[in-house]
Amino acid sequence: MGAKILQFLSSTGYANLGYKQAIMIIVAGILFYLAIKKEYEPLLLVPMSFGLLMVNLPLGGLMEKGGLLYYLYYGVKLGIYPPLIFMGVGAMTDFGPALANPKTLLLGAAAQFGIFGTLLGAIALGFTLPEAGSIGIIGGADGPTAIFLTSKLAPHLLGPIAIAAYSYMALVPIIQPPIMKALTTEEERKIEMKQLRKVTQTEKIVFPIIVIALVGLFLPSAIPLLGMLMFGNLMKESGVVDRILDTAQNSLTNIVTIFLGLTVGATASADKFLTVDTIQIIVLGLVAFSVGTATGTLFGKLMSKLTNGEVNPLIGSAGVSAVPMAARVVQTVGQEENPKNFLLMHAMGPNVAGVIGSAVAAGVLLSLVG
Predict the structure, then answer these.
(1) CA angle centred on 253, ends 252 and 255, rounded to 5°
(2) Per-residue model confidence (pLDDT) at position 323
(3) Where do the TM regions start and end (predicted)?
(4) Is residue 16, in this structure, part of any structural domain at all?
(5) Per the domain annotation, does 3 fall within a domain?
(6) Is 2 contained in some domain?
(7) Does the residue 331 lie in any domain?
(8) Total count of domains within the chain
(9) How far apart are CA 231 and CA 90, in angstroms?
(10) Mean pLDDT of 341-365
């Protein structure tokens, strides 16, 4: 009897828990704190943190062949979940602010500089070109894009890259304001922008069709992400497919978010995550995101000067595609300096442009590196 008890005890997770797994359980706890207490991207951080927790409990076998998450992970491995998330984002996004002020699309493009700048930095640190491309895409502050590209170019780095991408998306309200304030003057932050023109429904319907046709012909590798984004938006703006629009906005997106979060979190097992490469990826990811914020803001300053002060440069920081959090941060920082400032809708222009820009950047990297 005593031997059987000892055999049972030796088969428990407690007897097989190593210090690395204990560290990862603490990491999961930190992510739970950010998601639940601070409410930073909880819809994704909660399932991702739970997946991370489960995979680091010894002997669970969730990601081994036959395990629950092993099969759900095929949606990531085959590049299915991220485009479906993009469809949901498109179904919930209004491109009207970008159409009302098309020049703000340039701010979304400028904020993607962090992707390619960090790619060079990653190569200098010894990462391969595919790995560097996957690390650089963190600068777009777009979790689904980072997951999609990494699953194609460097699947072995999916855990740290996904966690870095979503963590920085969640920390937008903390990371961005100091950069925005350091690069702008008080007078610039006080600039009030004119009310946007009314965009016609015809413009909104035609826009997603034209974008996917033009970009898809030029950059076929961008079609999976950009195509689903535009399809979701067309459903929203057409006004004739309410039933499937509701599914795309709610139940389907929620289901895919749960599966995506759990399986991506489960890729961060202790043996794969606790490496020197992971530390470098997290640092490079912060650099990429910070550079993207900075270049967007600096381009906003340039646009402000070229338009004789018609553009508040703060909206340039929303060019990273953390929708709509980055736009809300612009609104908050702007109102701190000028309570009469209402920059949210103006910031949504570069914000949605950033979503398009990150998808295009991923397509470029897939074409050149993949």
Answers:
(1) 65
(2) 79
(3) 17-36, 43-59, 71-93, 105-127, 161-184, 205-231, 251-269, 281-299, 342-369
(4) no
(5) no
(6) no
(7) yes
(8) 1
(9) 7
(10) 91
